[in-house]
Every structure is written in C-alpha cells, then in structure tokens.
Write a structure and sequence with these properties.
Chain lengths: ~130, ~400
C-alpha cells in the first residue's frame, strides 16, 4: 500500500518509515503540513497516517480533502475536529505500539493490503517474545 | 475544586447552625427554667398561707435605709399585689371552694373547673402561661394557680429574637462564607489548575518519546533478533504507556469542562467499535445493543474517557464475549458493559476502590486506578456505577 506518513517528530518518521517498509508498504513522509498538497498529486497515497499536531496544517481542511479523494486516514493524537468525517478515519492516541498502528491500518475502510502485511497482527503481546 | 468549596460552605453553615442552636437553646432553656422556678417560689409562698398571701406582717421594702437591697423576685413585698392568682380548696368529701380569687382573666366557675382537672397533679404549667401547685394541708387538698403571662412575655420575646437571630446568623454566614470561600480557595484552585495543567503537559511530552522508544526497540529486534534487553524495553514501555495514559485521564476525570447536549449512543458505539478488531484477533465476539439517539447534557470528552476506560478494562480482562447495551429510561440512560470472566459470582463494587486489582489481574499491566477514576467522574455527573459478576460475566452498570 502507498502510505503517506505525516508527523512533526523526525524520529517517528524515521522509525515508522522503516517499520512500514518492512511490512511491505511504500512510504512517503512529510514533516510539515505545507508539503502535503504536492504529495497528493499524481499517484497519491492509498492511505494516510497523519499526526493531528502537524504544523502548517488546517486539520479540518486537510481531512476534508482526504475524504473527498476517498483516502482513509489513521489520525494520530487527541480529539478529531468536530466536523471530521469519522467514517474515513481511525483514531490512534499517543503513545501507541507498532502493532496498534498496523492493526489500525488493517482496519481502514477501503484500504488495499499488500502481500506481506499479514504478520501485522493486532494485540500481539511484545512481552512474550 | 468548585465541589470542594460548596461542600466547605455547607459544612461551615451546618456548624454555625448547630453552634447557634446549642448556645441559644441553652440560654432560652435556662430562661424558661428560671421563670418556672420563680413561679414555683411564688406558689410555694402562697402554699405556706393556705393559698393566699400573708400581708399581716409588714414586709421590708425593696431598698432599705442602710442602702442594702431587700427581698427581690418572688420574695418581694410587691409580689402579693402584682400576682394574679386563685386558690381552690377541696374538702375531704371532694367539695370545691374558692379560697382566694385575685384574677380577672378567669371566672370563678372556670377557676373551680381548672382546679378540678389539676388536683391530681403536683406542679407544672397549665393553659399556656399559668403555673399551678397542688398541696395538702390538714387533710384538705389545695390547688393554687398563678398567671405568669406578663412575667413570661420577655422570655418569649427573647425566644423569638433568638430564632430570628439563628436565621439572620445563617444568612450572614452564608454570604460571608461565599465571599471568603472564593478568596480562601483561590490559591487552592490555582494550585489544582496548575497540577492538572502539569499532568496534561507531562502526558503530552511523554507520549511521543515512548512511541519512538518502542518503535526503535521493534526495529532492533527485527534487524538483530530479539533479546532480553529489547523484551525488557517493550515491557517497561508498555508499563509507562499505561501510566502516562492514566496521568492524562486523572487530569480530565477530576473536573469536567463545559457540558452540552451530546449523543451518548454514538460515543459508546465509537469506544466499543475501536476495540472490535483487537477482540476479534483473540476470537472474542463483541455484541452491542445500543438504543439510538440517547443524548445527555454532559462533557463529551469526559464520556469518551469513561467509556474508553471501561472498554480498556473489559478488553484487558475478557475471557469470553464482550456485550454492551444502552437503554433509555425517561431522561436517564442505563449502560451495561459485560465481559466474560473467570471470577466467582458476587458483588464487585470494590472494583472502583483505588488500587484494587482482582485475582485475574495477575500478569496484566495496570495500576488499579482506572475504575476509581470512572466512579469519581460518574459521581460528578450525578450518576451511579456498580459492578458484579453473574453467570461468568463481569458486568459494569452505569446510570447517567
């Protein structure tokens, strides 16, 4: 799956770009809201992981843009804007575990899974490894 | 903190009321007791002369030539002139005769009638402000009744003023406490606000680093293989994640923000649906019977946290299916969240006590604070919450 990962923290971008790539996804990153419109051009992402605290971002406008393009979103952070189209969005609060993010991606409506993502089983107890 | 201030004002006013009641009660009690004693002294003086005053011997005036005070009160020489009274004598055959009659408010017939009804008593009050005494002399029974209305009037006046004083005292103390309460609690409210602000900021600042640490540990394991150290990192991060989430919940739970009409059905449904996949991965079914359009005036964020905490609890400890129901009952809402459990049947209301963890919590993360915070929040909303185990289901029931 082509995923756009947008978060202000560079370490989050670095870790999860690698983890999502290992899960078989093609990942594009953004650390500022201003970068997003040009990343949506062309063969845009099939899903977006968006930190709601991303700077340079009008949350309501960008979520509306994703909804109009039928791009499902995993929203990272606190409460969604009131007028957000919740059908298109899965919320995930910080701090989250990698398997929780993978499970949220799996649960997105209309997403297309790539082969190799079957290992991202939600609820796996890391402590048992 | 607003609740604490109102509770302080209520208790302080109760203390003022009790204090005024006790002090004024004692004063008025003593006043009336002393009035009764004065009246008894007069009836006793009358009884010494078979129910009338003995004015045959000269009595000393109030102020003596040498400047000393003469007899005062019941023994004053003026008492025989100011006391309104009557005495009825009952002969051995029961015949009643008026012995003395120095009163205007009662007729002779009424005097005999009153005395007949009192002759089996000893002493006491009758017909409001009349004091009586029954005594026997030379085989005959005497009933003396004196009118203490004029003497008691000041005592009643003091009583009415006392009652008015209690009401006035409560009003004054209410306004004073309300005014002072704001000033006394202002530093406490500020400290409380700063503490909540700190909890929320700390929660925010911890969250992203924890996410990064765990992701880094995951990457290390994938690239270099798992080790005891990465397992330990995961374990400690899980523990810190739980604590950090509860830090934020504590700040939100303690005081709710603006309440407005919100859909309880939608909030509960959303909280439950967000855990469906997790339960499905463990082959646990989630069933919901949520009546639509159940709405309340409440803080929606607080409701989200309450239901989130209850779902967290249900999912963490579910040994079997999770069932959620919401029913509307007039202007209230009744919610049940049940999960399969291995706990024995019985009342489990102590689940809401701080730091309580049951036997099935062994090996599971958590501080035992979540449900206690839920209870505090539900109480703030004037709701009720309880828990029990019945037929293999741990059931939390809330009425809002």
């Amino acid at each position: 799956m082509r995923i756009l990962l947008a978060a202000p923290d560079r370490d989050i971008l670095m870790c999860y770009e690698r983890l999502l790539s290992q899960e078989g996804h093609e990942v594009t990153t953004a650390f500022d809201g201003m970068q997003i419109p040009q990343l949506l051009a062309g063969s845009g992402p099939e899903a977006v992981i968006l930190d709601l605290d991303l700077p340079g971002l009008d949350r309501s406008r960008i979520l509306r843009m994703f909804a109009e393009d039928n791009i499902p979103v995993v929203a990272l952070g606190e409460a969604l804007p009131e007028n957000a189209d919740a059908k298109n969005i899965r919320s995930l609060r910080y701090p989250f575990l990698p398997e929780e993010l993978f499970a949220a991606l799996e649960a997105l409506p209309g997403k297309r899974s790539l082969p190799g993502t079957a290992d991202a089983a939600p609820g796996k107890d890391i402590g048992e490894r | 903190m607003d609740t604490a201030r109102k509770r302080f004002i209520r208790f302080a006013m109760l203390a003022v009321f009790v204090l005024l009641l006790v002090i004024l009660g004692i004063i008025n009690g003593m006043n009336f007791t002393m009035a009764a004693a004065d009246a008894d002294a007069i009836t006793e003086r009358l009884s010494r002369n078979k129910g009338s005053f003995d004015n045959s011997k000269p009595m000393e005036p109030g102020f003596l030539p040498d400047g000393k005070m003469g007899p005062m009160g019941p023994d004053s020489p003026e008492v025989s002139f100011t006391t309104r009274y009557f005495t009825v004598r009952f002969d051995q055959d029961g015949e009643a005769k008026l012995k003395a009659f120095q009163i205007a408010a009662v007729s002779e017939e009424e005097a005999i009638e009153w005395a007949s009804s009192l002759k089996n008593g000893t002493t006491g009050w009758t017909h409001g402000t009349y004091r009586f005494r029954v005594y026997t002399q030379e085989g005959k029974t005497f009933v003396t009744v004196i009118d203490q209305g004029r003497e008691l009037w000041p005592s009643y006046r003091i009583l009415y003023i006392s009652l008015g004083g209690i009401v006035l005292g409560l009003l004054v103390s209410y306004f004073f406490l309300s005014f002072m309460g704001k000033r006394v609690f202002a530093p406490l409210e500020e400290a409380d606000r700063k503490q909540k602000q700190f909890l929320l900021e700390a929660e925010k600042e911890f969250k992203v680093p924890l996410t990064v640490i765990n992701a880094d540990a995951e990457l290390i394991e994938r690239e270099m293989g798992p080790s005891d150290y990465t397992t330990s990192i995961h374990r400690q991060v899980r523990r810190m994640t739980g604590l950090v989430r509860q830090l934020g919940s504590m700040a939100i739970f303690e005081e709710s923000a603006e309440a407005k009409r919100c859909s309880v059905s939608e909030i509960l449904k959303s909280a439950a649906e967000s855990r469906r996949e997790e339960l499905a991965a463990r082959n646990i079914a989630l069933t919901m019977e949520i009546e639509p359009d159940a709405a309340l005036v409440a803080d929606s964020e607080l409701l989200r946290r309450i239901f989130g905490e209850l779902m967290e609890n249900a999912v963490k400890f579910a040994d079997g299916d999770v069932r959620i129901s919401l029913k509307k009952k007039e202007d209230r809402v009744q919610i049940r969240i049940a999960n399969g459990t291995s706990l024995a049947d019985g009342d489990r209301n102590n689940a809401f006590d701080r730091f309580t963890r049951f036997e099935n919590a062994e090996g599971k993360s958590g501080s035992g604070l979540g449900l206690s915070m839920v209870k505090s929040a539900v109480k703030e909303m004037d709701g009720r919450v309880g828990a029990k185990v019945e037929e293999g289901q741990f059931v939390v029931h809330i009425a809002l």
